[in-house]
Amino acid sequence: MHAANNPVKDKRVETAIHHWAPRFVSSGVPLTDFEEVTTGITDWDEWCAAWSARAAIHEGLGLKALADGYKLSAGEHLNRAAICYHFGKFMFVHDIAQMKAAHLKVIECRQLALPLLPNPGVRVEIPYQGKTLAGILRKPDGKEPHPVVIMCVGLDSTKEELEVYENIFLARGMATLSFDGPGQGEAEYDIPIRGDYEVAAKAVVDYVISRNDLDAARIGLWGVSLGGYYAARSVAFEKRIKACISLSGPYSWVETFDSRNELSREAFRVRSHAKDMAAARENAKTLSLEGVAKNITCPIFVVGGEFDKLTPPHNAERIAAEVSGPCQLLIVKGGNHVANNRRYMFQTQTADWMADILCK
Predict the structure, then answer these.
(1) Within 130-225, where are the H helices?
(2) Which of 10, 146, 155, 181 has the fewest CB atoms in 10 Å of its CB?
(3) pLDDT in tens, 126-151
(4) Per-residue pLDDT for 4 more than 50?
(5) Are strands 243-247 and 214-224 parallel, antiparallel or unpaired?
(6) Can you tell me whether residue 344 is helix, strand or coil?
(7) Rounded to the nearest 10 degrees, what angle do helices 47-67 and 96-113 cross at?
């Protein structure tokens, strides 16, 4: 018998806590919030509402600070609200209506925060095959045009999750353009995941080149988790990109598909617009660097986590072994997925590496 104060948790809840706790906290969720919210959830159906309730507290603090004229404080509170709403919706694909409601709050709170923070940001819309991809552009201090790092999110992340990563590049003199690509964030509802992500990357690079405030000759690409695959795949084809950072990107998505947890597989099924898991697995086969990685000629920094269960480190090692250009490989000792539990071992190091290429 389990004690009443220690109820059995839904396996999906346990999965989310076990796999992603360091990511939540390192991305800006207060540790106490994480502990209190997740302790109170026993059923996966409760997940989104519980996180949204906690996010609403931060949102209320932000709106009050804004009304009182404390803009910086308002921006900080609203950012925390956005990240909490985000982690409420991030894998909640079994209830699209509830997920989308939380997602709209993610966008709203981050949008309110953007002009209030250091290195303020603006929403941009990037033309893409008759539709648009939404992005967030932030620029550093200093003279324009700026070098820029295009930032690719992963399977379950969105452009609003990247505040911490953006700040590190901004502090080193690089603009950041975080965007929701096919199957991601704002695009996930009507544009499916695609393995040939270079098509989306080309659209973003075309957009960068259209702007006078960004330097077309100094474009970098950064990607995290599945975005690490997207980034590596893109630079094999898009030669206007001068440097690439790939964080825990899979070499072949289908090779990790069957061993992934239920939440990840279902999220991929929904965001690739597959009717069932068999169709999703067929879609997964299109996400591969086989025969492609050799065409990566720009400098690339590949990072893996030693104990990454979602994308084991042999993926990073294989990418690094097959590229044709300059490559740095870092397998973070003790690191989990994206080494979120050891961000200090790669986050500033990769940003410094990118700055050496784009800013000198």
Answers:
(1) 163-170, 198-209
(2) 10
(3) 999 999 999 999 999 999 999 999 99
(4) no
(5) parallel
(6) helix
(7) 20
Among the listed residues 91, 203, 94, 97, the one whose alpha carbon sits nearest the alpha carbon of residue 158: 91
CA distance 334 to 345: 10
Q: How far is Cα 207 from Cα 8, in angstroms, rounded to an integer?
A: 50
Q: What's the confidence (pLDDT) of residue 7? A: 64
Q: What is the pLDDT of residues 43-90, one digit of tens each?
A: 999 999 999 999 999 999 999 999 999 999 999 999 999 999 999 999
Measuring CA to CA, which residue among 204, 202, 138, 205 is closest to residue 165?
A: 138
Per-residue tokens: 286: 């299109």
**Beta pairing partners, 133:** 126
Q: What count of Cα atoms within 13 Å lies in the side-chain half-sphere of residue 144?
A: 7
Q: Are 229 and 269 in contact (CB under 8 A)?
A: no
Per the confidence metrics, is the pTM higher than 0.70? yes
Question: Residue 354 — φ and ψ, nearest 5°?
Answer: -65, -40
Give the chain's domains with CATH numbers.
1-117 (1.20.1440.110), 120-360 (3.40.50.1820)
- Specify whether the CB–CB gap between 336 and 22 falls below 8 A: yes
Residues making up the chain, counted from first to last: 360
Q: List the alpha helices (DSSP H) in the chain.
A: 11-26, 31-39, 47-67, 71-89, 96-113, 163-170, 198-209, 226-237, 253-257, 262-271, 277-284, 314-322, 347-358
> Which amino acid, one-letter code, is at 137?
L
